[in-house]
Design brief:
The complex is a heterodimer. Chain A is mainly alpha-helical. Chain A has helices at 55-59, 68-72, 79-94, 100-128, 132-153, 175-197, 201-207, 215-220, 226-229, 237-240, 261-285, 304-309, 311-322, 363-369, 371-375, 380-390, 394-398; strands at residues 15-19, 31-37, 40-47, 162-163, 166-167, 330-338, 341-349, 357-361. Chain A is built from 17 helices and eight strands. Chain A is globular, with a radius of gyration of 22 Å. In chain B, the strands form two sheets. Chain B has a six-stranded mixed β-sheet with strand order 1-2-3-6-5-4. In chain B, a hairpin with a 2-residue loop joins strand 2 (25-29) and strand 3. Chain B is an alpha/beta fold. Classes of the chains: A mainly alpha, B alpha/beta. The interface between A and B is large, with 40 and 36 residues.
Chain lengths: 399, 158
C-alpha cells in the first residue's frame, strides 16, 4: 500500500513514523501513522483494511443459516454476540417469536461473552502499560469461561451456537452448575485486578487525564459502548432498545464523566460486575425444561426423531439443508450491545434463500475513528493507552 | 413491504410539516420506519432531524448501500439514525442512479460519517460531495472496481 499522509504542520520539523505493533490485536493488521514533533503527536491516522476478508460479500453467496458461521469470525473475542445479533436480525425479518427459555440462555451466554471479552481487554491493556501479572490472571479466568462455551457449544471460540429460531442444541446437563462455579469465583478475582490496578500510582499516571473524549465529541464521532459511557453518556442498547428479554433483567448502566482512559477502564470493570449479576438472574430464570426453538417448520430443522419417523419432518429437513428458506422481501436493522458497543446487522432480503445484502455495523470500526481525537497533542507513550482503551478487534474493524 | 402515507410515525409527520417535497416515500416494515428522501434534500433533512429540539437525532449509527443492479435507480444509500435520549430510530434512504452515483456528504451534521462514507465509496463507488478525504479505506489504494457491487466479478482471473 502506498503511503500518503497529509502532514498537519507541513514543516521540516515534524517526522512521520509507523506506530507499533505493540498491542496483541494489532500485529500486522493495524497501522497507525504518527506525525511527530519531537515526542508530541501532531497527527495520528489509523490505516486499516489489512484483515479485510469480504465477509459481507461472502454472506450474499450463503444461505441465511450458513452465514452464521461467518459472523463468528468478525469479533472473535465475542462470537456469541455476533451470532445473536445476526440471528435476531433474520428472526425480525421472518417475524419469529423465540421461546423464553432460549432467550434467557442467549442472555446468559452473551453476558459471559462480555465478561470474557472484558477480561481479555483488561489483561492486554495492562500488559501494554507494563503490568504483566494482570494479563496472566485475567487469562486464567477467561479460560474457565471458554471451557463453558466448549461444554455448551462444542467450541471455545467459533461457537455458532445461536441459530435462526433458537439454539443449535440443548445445553448439556450440569452446565448451569459450572456457570455457577465460575461466576461465584469471579468477583474475588475482579477485586484482585482492581487491587493491582485501580490504586496503582503508575497505572493512574498512565491512564488518568489521558485520551480525553468529551461527551459531545463521543456522540458526534458515533462512539458507543464503554467509549461512550466513559464519556458520561448513559446509552446502552440493552436498556434503550431491549432485545432478547433484557427488559426483564435488573442491572445498572455505569458511566464515568471524565472521558479519559481511566474512566473507560472503570466502566469496563463495573460492567463485568453487572454482567455477573445478569448471569445470576438468568440462571434463576432459565426453566429446567422447555422448548429452545421457535415453532417454525421449514426454518428450524426438525429433531432427529421427527426426521426419522415422519414424512413431513424428512421433507423439511431435506429442504432446509438443500435450499434453505426464503424470508419475505424487506430490510431490517437490528442492534445489540456487544462488549465493544452498538453492534448492528442490516439484512436486506429479496425474497430468495440467500441474503441480498448483509452489512455489519462494527462498533470497533467506528470507535477507532476517534483515535485521532484521543491521541493528538499527547506523547507517543499515551498512544499506547489510547489504542488500548478503544478496545478494537481488527476482525470486526476490517470485516 | 407496504407503503404507508398516513404518517403513523410522528417523526414523519414533522418532516412533512417542515418540507413536504423532502419526503418522497415512507416504508413501514417490521416496526422500522424508512423515509425515502430525494438526494438533493438529504443534507437539509439531516440538519433538520439532528437539530430540531423535539427530534434530536444526534447519533448516526450507520451508513450502508444496497445495490439493486440491474434495476434503476440502482443504489440505495441507507442512513440509520438514533435519538439517544428519546430512544428512537429512523432510517433515511436515498436512491441514486447507476451512471454517476453521488450524494452530498453528511459530515457537517454527523462527523462520524467520515469513515462510513469512505467505506461506501470504497466498496460501492458512491461519491460523497464535500467529503474532505474520500479515499479507499478497506481495499488497497490501487484496487480496481468496487467489490460489493452486484456486477463485480467474483470468479476467474483478474
Amino acid at each position: 500500500m502506498t503511503t500518503t499522509i497529509q502532514t498537519a504542520a507541513g514543516t521540516a520539523q515534524t517526522m512521520v513514523l509507523n506506530m507499533g505493533p505493540q498491542h496483541p490485536s494489532t500485529h500486522g493488521v493495524l497501522r497507525v501513522l504518527l506525525e511527530l514533533d519531537g515526542e508530541i503527536v501532531v497527527k495520528a491516522e489509523p490505516v486499516i483494511g489489512y484483515l479485510h476478508t469480504g465477509i459481507e460479500k461472502n454472506c450474499e453467496a450463503k444461505t441465511y443459516s450458513q452465514a452464521i458461521t461467518l459472523t463468528d469470525r468478525l469479533d472473535y473475542l465475542a462470537p456469541l454476540s455476533n451470532n445473536l445479533c445476526y440471528c435476531l436480525a433474520v428472526e425480525k425479518l421472518l417475524g419469529l417469536e423465540i421461546p423464553k427459555r432460549a432467550q434467557y440462555i442467549r442472555v446468559l451466554l452473551t453476558e459471559l461473552t462480555r465478561i470474557a471479552s472484558h477480561l481479555v481487554w483488561v489483561g492486554t491493556h495492562a500488559i501494554d502499560l507494563g503490568a504483566m501479572s494482570v494479563f496472566l490472571y485475567s487469562f486464567r479466568e477467561r479460560e474457565e469461561i471458554m471451557k463453558i462455551f466448549e461444554f455448551v457449544s462444542g467450541q471455545r471460540m467459533m461457537t455458532s451456537y445461536f441459530r435462526i429460531g433458537g439454539l443449535a442444541l440443548e445445553p448439556p446437563p450440569g452446565w448451569l452448575d459450572r456457570v455457577g462455579r465460575v461466576v461465584d469465583a469471579l468477583p474475588g478475582h475482579i477485586d484482585e485486578y482492581e487491587d493491582l490496578l485501580t490504586t496503582n500510582r503508575i497505572w493512574l499516571g498512565r491512564t488518568q487525564g489521558i485520551g480525553i473524549l468529551s461527551a459531545a465529541d463521543a456522540i458526534a464521532m458515533g462512539a458507543s459502548g464503554p467509549m461512550l459511557r466513559g464519556s458520561g453518556v448513559a446509552y446502552d442498547v440493552r436498556k434503550a432498545f431491549p432485545y432478547s428479554s433484557y427488559d426483564e433483567f435488573d442491572f445498572q448502566v455505569h458511566t464515568q464523566a471524565a472521558g479519559d482512559c481511566f474512566a473507560r477502564y472503570q466502566v469496563r470493570m463495573a460492567e463485568i460486575r453487572e454482567s455477573i449479576k445478569i448471569v445470576r438472574q438468568a440462571m434463576n430464570k432459565i426453566p429446567a425444561e422447555g422448548p429452545i426453538h421457535a415453532v417454525a417448520p421449514g426454518i428450524v430443522p426438525p429433531s432427529r426423531e421427527e426426521m426419522k419417523t415422519s414424512i413431513e419432518g424428512l421433507i423439511y429437513h431435506f429442504k432446509i439443508f438443500t435450499e434453505g428458506f426464503a424470508p419475505p422481501p424487506g430490510e431490517v436493522y437490528q442492534v445489540i450491545e456487544s462488549p465493544r458497543g452498538e453492534l448492528g446487522f442490516f439484512v436486506a432480503s429479496d425474497g430468495s434463500a440467500k441474503p441480498y445484502r448483509v452489512k455489519v455495523r462494527a462498533p470497533s470500526f467506528i470507535n477507532l475513528q476517534s483515535l485521532s481525537k484521543l491521541a493528538e497533542g499527547r506523547l507517543i507513550a499515551d498512544v499506547v493507552a489510547c489504542i488500548g482503551t478503544t478496545d478494537i478487534v481488527l476482525g470486526e474493524v476490517d470485516r | 413491504m407496504e407503503s404507508d402515507s398516513t404518517d403513523k410515525n410522528p417523526v414523519v409527520h414533522k418532516l412533512r410539516e417542515w418540507d413536504a417535497p423532502a419526503v418522497a416515500e415512507v416504508i413501514e416494515f417490521r416496526g422500522e420506519t424508512t423515509v425515502v428522501i430525494p438526494g438533493e434534500h438529504l443534507l437539509r433533512a439531516a440538519e433538520f432531524l439532528a437539530s430540531e429540539p423535539s427530534l434530536r437525532f444526534s447519533f448516526l449509527s450507520d451508513i450502508t448501500t444496497v445495490d439493486r443492479f440491474p434495476l434503476e435507480p440502482r443504489f440505495e444509500v441507507n442512513y440509520h439514525l438514533v435519538s439517544l435520549d428519546r430512544r428512537e430510530r429512523l432510517r433515511l434512504k436515498v436512491r441514486l442512479g447507476g451512471s454517476d452515483p453521488m450524494v452530498h456528504s453528511v459530515i457537517p451534521v454527523w462527523p462520524t460519517a467520515n469513515w462510513h462514507e469512505r467505506e461506501n465509496f470504497d466498496l460501492f463507488g458512491i461519491r460523497f460531495e464535500g467529503h474532505p478525504d474520500l479515499r479507499r479505506i478497506l481495499m488497497p489504494d490501487d484496487w480496481e472496481g468496487h467489490p460489493l457491487r452486484k456486477d463485480y466479478p467474483v470468479e476467474g482471473y483478474r
